[in-house]
Amino acid sequence: MTDAERVLQVLIHDARTPLGVAQGYIRLLREERLETPDERERALSRAMDALGRIARLFDDASAFVVTPNRTTPTTTISAAFLAASVEARVREWEFAVTRGLVDPAARVRLGTSAERLAEAIAFVAAAVRHGGAASSPHLHIESATAGVRFAARAAGGPETRAEGNPERSPFDAWSAGGLVVPLACRVIEEAGGRIDRVGSEIVVTFPAEAAA
Length: 212
Prior knowledge:
single chain; Heat Shock Protein 90; two-stranded antiparallel sheet; 8 strands; 18% strand; elongated
């Protein structure tokens, strides 16, 4: 299945529920079956939220079908700054975060804004929640031989050390559902990052770059 076919499949699947929700509330309003102003306001708010989810889904689909940037980014960013930005984002999502040594001189390529790259890493890390791991997941950030490393695992999952060449397998960006994670993977890859399954972890690694 091509990526375009996957995008279409996600659109068909994920748009149905919010569309049905919006239609249901609008029907109640049209048939004047809601008696109080509070009920009508609540129905209107929920219908608008559902339509907003559909709009965001189509925005993601539109962004996905844009031809990816195949040029090598020439701008670099401090790995320590990127690590701090990612940590701030995942803490908002109730991650437990630990930090190893991050080389203050290390830099990584920047194919987009620093904010968007940090957000993309956070979205990929959050994929460890897929499959019912709802309790606080864990993110460990450190410099590795290859550069800077972000390793996410579900709460209670075993840690996989970077040393010793642990076995890697491809990360399926589509397994979490929706288009957010596939889009995040594209942003990371355009910046020169690599995404793997390493044991029970999702690991994002960026190679070290010379200072600009």
